[in-house]
């Protein structure tokens, strides 16, 4: 279905809940959703590719992007900057494609201000114990960093109320199906379609 404007979807949730895994699985389904690649000052993890997982930047490069208004939103998360390049998101939506942003809570709240019509989804782990074990099993963070991320996680979960939908990531495929259902339903909201169909009646 061709639309004038695509849907902006924001997916947040605590570190280790499975945002990357769920987005990766969503990509395997033929949903036509586009993925925004963030900029970060975090060092690449093993296997991460510049321009695919993130645009890896120095602190100076990132600050330059902030000053030049190149970021739709940005936030500091456990000692590093993360931000969404503005142009890709704006161009993609303008072309009528849906786009998903996988970002933490402070950034999501900034996006809510500029895109109140966006769809905000919070991914929840089945329990905090399961969350910690997912971060530990991923094996990418030291114990100190895992503790910091667990502290941030509890603060983030308290802001769940700011989101439109809460999706539990118990099983990856089940979470993907829930997100697909949300996107389908949101694309049928009358507010998004009313102008298009009014026009059709006039023609
Ligand atoms: N505000 C904001 N947060 C981001 C962005 N990109 C990633 N994040 C979030 O930053 C946090 C840390 O990301 P990362 O270091 O990749 O760790 P991981 O999510 O545990 O794999 C996560 O909550 C991400 O969702 C962004 O562009 N903006
Ligand atoms: N539904 C799930 N059940 C069990 N393990 C999961 C599930 N979703 C993700 N994982 C695992 O949890 C770890 C963290 O997932 P990841 O996608 O990196 O999280 P995030 O991007 O939210 O930080 C990974 O090792 C991943 O394989």
UniProtKB/TrEMBL annotation:
E.C. number(s) listed in UniProt: 2.7.4.8
Residues where ATP binds: 13-20
Domain Guanylate kinase-like: 6-184
Localization (cell): Cytoplasm
PROSITE patterns assigned to the protein according to its UniProt record, in alphabetical order: GUANYLATE_KINASE_1 (PS00856), GUANYLATE_KINASE_2 (PS50052)
Purpose of the protein: Essential for recycling GMP and indirectly, cGMP.
Name assigned to this protein: Guanylate kinase
Species for this entry: Evansella alkalicola
TM annotation in the entry: none
Keywords, in A-Z order: ATP-binding, Cytoplasm, Kinase, Nucleotide-binding, Transferase
Similarity field: Belongs to the guanylate kinase family.
InterPro entries, per database record: GK/Ca_channel_bsu (IPR008145), Guanylate_kin-like_dom (IPR008144), Guanylate_kinase (IPR017665), Guanylate_kinase_CS (IPR020590), P-loop_NTPase (IPR027417)
Reactions catalysed: GMP + ATP = GDP + ADP
Classification via Pfam families: Guanylate_kin
Gene name of the record: gmk
One function term, GO molecular function aspect: GMP kinase activity
Signal peptide: none
Primary location: cytoplasm
């Amino acid at each position: 279905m061709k639309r004038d404007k695509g849907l902006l979807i924001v997916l947040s949730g605590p570190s280790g809940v499975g945002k990357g895994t769920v987005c990766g699985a969503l990509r395997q389904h033929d949903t036509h959703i586009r993925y925004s690649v963030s900029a970060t000052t975090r060092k690449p993890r093993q296997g991460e590719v510049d321009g695919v997982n993130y645009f890896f930047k120095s602190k100076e490069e990132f600050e330059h992007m902030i000053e030049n208004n190149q970021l739709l939103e940005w936030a500091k998360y456990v000692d590093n900057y993360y931000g969404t390049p503005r142009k890709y998101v704006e161009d993609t939506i303008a072309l009528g494609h849906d786009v998903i942003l996988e970002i933490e809570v402070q950034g999501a709240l900034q996006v809510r201000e500029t895109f109140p019509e966006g769809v905000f989804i919070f991914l929840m782990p089945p329990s905090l114990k399961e969350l910690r074990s997912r971060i530990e099993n991923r094996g990418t963070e030291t114990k100190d960093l895992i503790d910091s991320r667990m502290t941030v996680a509890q603060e983030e979960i308290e802001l769940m109320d700011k989101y439109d939908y809460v999706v539990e990531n118990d099983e990856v495929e089940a979470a993907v199906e829930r997100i697909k259902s949300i996107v389908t339903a949101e694309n049928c909201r009358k507010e998004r379609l009313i102008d298009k169909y009014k026009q059709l009646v006039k023609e």
